[in-house]
Here is the input.
Amino acid sequence: MNQLEKYEDSIGYSFRDRSLLVRALTHRSAGAPHNERLEFLGDAVLELVISGFLFDRFGNVDEGDLSRMRSTLVRETTLAEIAHSFSLGDYLNMGPGEQRSGGFRRDSILADAVEATIGAIYLDTGEQLETVRDLLGKWFSERLKTIRPGIGQKDPKTRLQEYLQAREFHVPVYAVVDVSGQQNSQVFKVSCSVEPLSQIVFGTGTSKRRAEQDAAEHVLEILRKSNGNRK
Amino acid sequence: MNQLEKYEDSIGYSFRDRSLLVRALTHRSAGAPHNERLEFLGDAVLELVISGFLFDRFGNVDEGDLSRMRSTLVRETTLAEIAHSFSLGDYLNMGPGEQRSGGFRRDSILADAVEATIGAIYLDTGEQLETVRDLLGKWFSERLKTIRPGIGQKDPKTRLQEYLQAREFHVPVYAVVDVSGQQNSQVFKVSCSVEPLSQIVFGTGTSKRRAEQDAAEHVLEILRKSNGNRK
Here is the structure.
């Protein structure tokens, strides 16, 4: 089996149009045609198929819990785990720079390639959902079995802490810098500083905890973007 | 024609299962079963179908421009316009409180009901995309004809200003409250105060403009949430 066949074997799908698969596995650092357009499409396919699974499976769960479960299932770390289960990093086409800097191990790049793969399968099957639905049912089967409303979705502070620990940085430092507003409509402002960012990031909320979660969310966003820019 | 038939007539689809349509048109203020779960599903259907339209139509446009065009097409104000073209407000089931407070005119409620309608059609057609694709092609035909990469997507400051003006509030007030960081990695912190919010909201960015956009985005988010809570 060649490389592409090995990857097809591990994802459980053989492409009619191999050029779609090649593109899905091509990071922009390797030049065009790369996988970013397929990622755009695949991201939306993934969202809908997972939404459908959750909608059908949890008939009495409200929209808020469905959304939280969906973000747990489609977020970068989950997709990177799935990428690892396919050894996706072994099949990625990247520029020499990314190769050296270990881009094939970076969560964001792996997660993007999983979404691009989904987009490629969707196109290869004539923009129908059946095949993608079957495949994602397998890829996510364990997670779909175990996910429950109200659990599984980690809050921003937890995700930030895990992000930093995974990269051997210190834990974030939070501090209340301002409390304003009337007694029953107080607004807390919290600063959050983390090792990899030179800037201090702020969050606001109607409680100290909410303000910290808000700040953590912003930090995660900034870290995501700076990862993106490093592409 | 009864009310439901009139609505079916204006959206161009007749339901096999009318109870899905009734639910799609039932705001939570009217009690369960309401349309929030259908909205969760319909939102994802809409994202994918619009993504597919843009992907197919703009073969050489990069993922960033595709995303910007998609957010222009699926954002609340666009969906509210589509709702008005269906006179959706006339068919909404709402609690007496919402009726009196004019909820049937509120963009967020109208946009949610459009997404719920899309979710209902998707379920009514056996979770296939063909019918929804045809319908959305009609609903969005003018917008799909005129949208172009790099235009159409309004930035947060513009959207915030329009949001406030539409509700006859004063324009937002921005002020730089902090500049930190090294010369070539400066971080600006900007405050934004708007009439309908008691709190001052902050934004950060590597330029004054970016920080203002960030602050405006947060304000829009808070306003969206508080609209949600008022439901």
